[in-house]
Amino acid sequence: MYPQKRFLLVVIVLIISIFFTSNILAEETSEPASSELVKYQAIRIWNNCDDADECSGDKSHADKYCSTSGSCDYAGECGVKSWPPDQGCILYSYEVDDGFLGIGEDDECVAGVIPSGYNVDEEYQNSLGRVGELDSYWKDTLTYTSLSTIGAAGTGALIGAIATSWSGPGALLGAGIGAGVGFIVGGLNSLLGFDDKDAATALIYALFNFKDNQGVLCGNDHYWYQCDKDHNGTLYWINIPLGENSYGLSNTMPLALFECKNIGNYEYVWRVKDIDMDHDGYTEKEDCYDNNFLDPYLGCPSLGEEEYQGKTAEEIQILTRSLCTNPKNGKCAICINPGAAEVCGDKINNDCDAGPNSLAAAENDLTSDDCNKFKAGCLQQEIFNPDNPEVLPELSSEESSSEEKTIAPTSLVHKNIFDQKFSWIPTIEGGYCCGYNGIKDSGLIKDGAEIETKAGTVESAPGSYVCLNKDITGSKDESIPDDLCGKDWCWVKASGPAKFQVLTVNSPFGESYDLVSNSEKWFTCDSSSSSPYLTTPFISEDDEEGITSLQKANRFYCYQEGNHYSWAECHGENDKAVNAGTIKGRKEGESLYTLYLPGADVKTGVQYGNSIEVIASNSPEFKKFYGEEAFYDFANYQYLEFLVKFVADEIGTPIPISELTNKVEFPAQVYLEIYGPEQKDSEGQDKNILYLKENVLGYVTNNPFFSDQSWMHVKVPIKEFQGVTKIKISTDEPNLIGVRNIYLSKEGEESLLCSGEDSEKYSSWLSNIDQLQAQNPISGEKLCTELYGPTAWLGKEVTSDSIRCCGNNLQEYYSGPSKETEGKKYGCWNSQPIADKETTMNVEFKITSTEKDLELSYPQASANY
User: Is 290 helix (H, G, I), strand (E, B) or coil?
Assistant: First the structure.
């Protein structure tokens, strides 16, 4: 049955072609071999009326549904027709006259060609009525489409123009078939002649309905398609003619949608189901974007007619979802419907949860277009889809409940426009999608929260989190602790496995900087940091070694390291510090900008040998944090300092003064070499630029005293080298040296030194090695005696705070009250401890240096990103 809206047709043009045949009408087919619709090549009605009035008063069922194989005839009366017909479906009319013993009988058979969409259902109607309703439906369909406000501007106007350019399906198809085939009903007798006029009259005016309670629909391929129990819910689209194109060919579009329905009493008929232009299984009234005119121009996927015809809405919806897994297709009409996955960020209401006819992106609902507020879209997560539980219209109460067909809410993998799994946490703003905003999310610190979602569920992630990208974040393990990670992005929790671990953010568009957690919150070390010290946590916890969180937090200090900022962790010799053994860890006596010794003893930080290479910028330990293209930058630093002593072997056995001449070959020298990046030499070979090579024993601050109990402190003036790739400290063979505590320092500033000690109230960093403060358990005494000898610490008794440690500065002199050590009191002469009543002297030399200074310049270069 068509929609109830009707209009008066003054003249109805019926497209009927009369054929005279001699073939035999075949029997009905058996059950279908598959789930495909049962189809027939013709149907037949049987009547014995003689005129329009008599035929209009008789009611009958369709007599035969003819199979798709064999021939169609009855008693040799029906004409021959090649199969399939070119212009429509075949409807046979067989008229039987009453007679006695064959006298006066004049049985007749004619065939009419019926347009696609002709529907034989439970209603008793003649062909005039059915074609008239079809004409009305087609016009209404095109008018409805022309008034649609959905889709790109201009498409509705285009359809409207097409709709007004023709007078109805009868006229259009009549012109297409040819003047000799179509005919006006009023001229029937003159056209058909006397012999078959009764059969033709019955074909036009006889009232009939379906056969065996199963309706049939004239399809686009001019077969009749049956609606039956096995195909309840099946859909079929009828092509509506839109006129001729510029090539003179007929344009059609599959707009008229029919559904096979059980209407009760075990009757199955085709019913008009509204419009579904994009063939996604959702009608225009259910969909929020049904206009697919632009889809071919957008490279959109589509279902072929053989894929959507004869399928249920649910089957089509499943097929559609399989086509729409790529979020770039989220703009396509076929991928926008109540069963679609939401694509957050595309500004489109992909799943229509804002209602039919609304394409506006929804921001605050279950499937928000804001990826920050849509967890599943951010994570590209498969979740139960409660937004639009699609249910087919309720069936008649007369039907068995076992036949009810409900499309249950499905699980959908929701998407984002980048088709990437990011990381998400709930926040008081509704959430945040780490990585969705690109590189600017890297290093972003957010507080998680507990929130109730629109679905009524609770999302909870309390604590401080930092958003990090795996590819541009450096760490001791070359990986991010896997807290909440997507493909490339992670939310890393401050109280999780990463606590107290230094992480480096290497932005391609800015300076590198460090992050560290105090076990409760994340803190950044960069140019905007308000304090160089790490804030201590509110609650302190002990680890398995008995070290508290407060003590660990007090180990950290933020400083500028050339062209970037860094956190440094100070730890003791036996501590299992998180950053120990990395370029972010500092041992006793090391300063902030310490240059890492890759071969040093793990506990003491001392490396022994004839030639000792400081970590190069291409070293694995350096690359872990700064990547392939990182270099040392000595900008804003004027000195390179280190401690050195001559030893007997490569395990660092001290040399007593009495054996120096036997163990050390004099004159003893210590060389410092600093190299820059590679460049081609005069022979075309790649070689590192030599920035500095110098014998540096002349820069010893505590005099070159070859003691087995102390170290020589070397402080070499340097230029602000950039692009430093390698540093080497060596001596002449066969001499051996030990080297430790290599760091950079600034003119006029005391270098902070790692004490190797812990406190819950005070920093582990010494402002200088002379430090001694009331109530602060951390002082410079331990470090002073280790580096400059057991008698170098003069104690709190001294009259000047800057002289407590003798030897750490150049030309230190002191004579006065001091601490008693080994039964004696000591003073300081030219940075050397001297006991009371001992004598010493200075020997001064005047030398002239012929060394030529290396002039360096670093031209500015600009780069466009």
Answer: coil
